[in-house]
Design goal:
alpha/beta, two-stranded antiparallel ribbon, 32% helix, 18% strand, globular, disordered N terminus
Amino acid sequence: MENGEALENGEGVLDDPVAFFHFIGPENPNDMENGVPADAPPPAAAAEHVNEVPNSPLDLNLPPTPDFSGKKIILVVTGAPAAKGVIQICEVFRQFNAQIQVVVTDDSLKFFDRRLLSESAYVYADADQIEWKEKTLEIVHLVDWADALVVAPLSLKHMSMISVGLVDDIASEVCRSWPYGPRLDQFGFEIPPKPAVFFVQVTGPNRITRAINHNYYQLQNWGVRIFDGMPATPMQLVAQVFNALNGVNG
């Protein structure tokens, strides 16, 4: 089955949570040189490396009926074809008792019916927030509200923006504001980081260049659980978020 096929046709929502993901980063994300692993392959080889498929699926150790127990999720959807699966993803999150709010980019809206999405979750869109740049406090409250940040799919455009802190829409502002690492509260006490899970989708003629690898490794170095490609079913995506919230490797 091709990546994202089940998302496109709505099949397999309740399949066993087995993921066919592949990291392209080093086992130790701190083993970096100028933001890129010292042993990173050249661009042509990197493209082949990204398309490798694991020999066997990864066991996610997910309970038979995962319960998010009211955990709060921000789902950011950017402009890549797998965005058409966002409605099914929201439905699976809700099925397992997660609260979810969705942030969509303008270029993602061509892949799904926003009216149907609004039936599953509250939706933030730039078209509704004309003066979103003046609503930084609302974005801060949204980030504080959430227990986990999920970006699925993450386009190369937004991966580049997020990795260097650029902002030109609500989605990138939310991602820039997210506490990837420990931070201090107003009294000087450390607040632990919150999990972030990103699923990168490479589309069209894009090549995996060294610049793209740099952005990928930068996010990974922040502590983001970043995956190459969308999972085959919404259930597999939800499984990765569940594991991130519970500190399970996978």
